[in-house]
Amino acid sequence: MMTELQQLGEDAAKLAAIPVWPLPDDDITDALHAAHRLEQTAMLLQARLVHHATGRGIPTAQGYRSTTRWLAALLALDPHQARDLAEAATALHHPAIGQAVLDGRANLRQAAVIAATIDAIPADLALLNEPTHPADPDSTDPSTDPGSTDGTPRFTPDDVTRIIDEAERTMIEMAGRLPAYQLRRVGDRILTHIAPTWPTKPTKPPSPAKKPAPIADAV
Question: Is the pTM of this model over 0.70?
Answer without folding.
Answer: no
